[in-house]
Amino acid sequence: MDRTAPPLATIAAALRRERERAGISLTELARRAGIAKSTLSQLEAGAGNPSVETLWSLGVALGVPFSRLVEPPTPAVRVIRAGEAPGIRSEQADFTGILLSVGSRHARRDIYLVELDPGALRKAEAHIPGSVEHMIVARGRVRTGPAAEPVELRPGDYAAFPGDVEHVYEALEPDTLVVLVMEHPD
Amino acid sequence: MDRTAPPLATIAAALRRERERAGISLTELARRAGIAKSTLSQLEAGAGNPSVETLWSLGVALGVPFSRLVEPPTPAVRVIRAGEAPGIRSEQADFTGILLSVGSRHARRDIYLVELDPGALRKAEAHIPGSVEHMIVARGRVRTGPAAEPVELRPGDYAAFPGDVEHVYEALEPDTLVVLVMEHPD
DNA sequence: TCACGGTGTTCGTCAAGTCGAACGGATCGG
DNA sequence: CCGATCCGTTCGACTTGACGAACACCGTGA
């Protein structure tokens, strides 16, 4: 897993990466985490060996799990309608479900549960290049996908589309519930 | 997940637990990790706030991933009920959903859509060690989790549980639909 | 009984992490 | 042009963690 990898440089890189991802300044992050910005500055510069408390508070302030700060980084619209079984099924022995997407070893996938209501057309700016979003509709209907070519999804429908271009989420029914898996490349 | 929990006590407990699991003495562990035994003694006593380097070398010496020393032991089943917003939401600019689970760089996550019907109690044998299953109920009700302590989930509920022990899926209503994310370590 | 090798503890010293303030730089507006 | 307000960096003073030695404790065997 993480073996004897040197955590020093990893932390420095992770801090800067996650901070920029959150879109906040060094000063602001230091304030939120309740640490001196000088400390944070040194950490991001690679000069450090922070205490657990310090790094922990940074993790909390960034909204990322602790382990993401210390473990090293590794590196068009596809729709599957409810009932349309894609050829592949799980080979995993005793399990029989529809395999919607296979994870990569070089990506990170976060799972979200999102409730949407009509009227609020949510425009999402591009995320980091290479990111992919997977959406499965649990309840209601949504129109989602790249801003250029959104698709309409009904319960059980699945769609995957690039997250690194502007894309939209729009509920077409009240109380719409979707499962969203966001995939970020390393 | 790890929230604002104080890591101090967690580390102390984790160190003692893992060390006893390895069956080595405090002195011996300190020697292997290349740190003073006094330091280790204080850490296990809960008095501390170790530097990352120190804790890292302990993790290496114990042969356990770093995160196991700082994150509280994962309960067999972690459930997030529909409507129960877990502390942190995505700060990702324009996105506001409930963050159910954060992906690791050292795991692969596959996304499944599963339809279940009552009566078929599905017992799943243990998968490869370290695998984790994430389930979000889209429609209907299911009873799932480790065979020892299953939980009942309703639409919108989320549960994560270890996949490396025997676990069950059971639909409690007809036409039950769940999104299942299977996570395999590398 | 007492010396021995092992356990984990406590204590003083030193190095290192953390802090707050002061600094140079960039941007904006009067 | 220059004051204001951010940004991130560097500096000295203080705090604290890491170290090693000395310590008390326990079981063993000569």
UniProtKB/TrEMBL annotation, chains A, B:
Keyword hit for DNA-binding: yes
Protein's UniProt name: XRE family transcriptional regulator
Keyword DNA-binding attributed: yes
GO MF annotation, one: DNA-binding transcription factor activity
GO CC entries: cytosol
SMART domains named in the record: HTH_XRE
Keywords: DNA-binding
UniProt xrefs under InterPro entries: Cro/C1-type_HTH (IPR001387), Cupin_2 (IPR013096), Lambda_DNA-bd_dom_sf (IPR010982), RmlC-like_jellyroll (IPR014710), RmlC_Cupin_sf (IPR011051), TransReg_Diox_bact_type (IPR050807)
Annotated HTH cro/C1-type domain residues: 15-69
Pfam families: Cupin_2, HTH_3
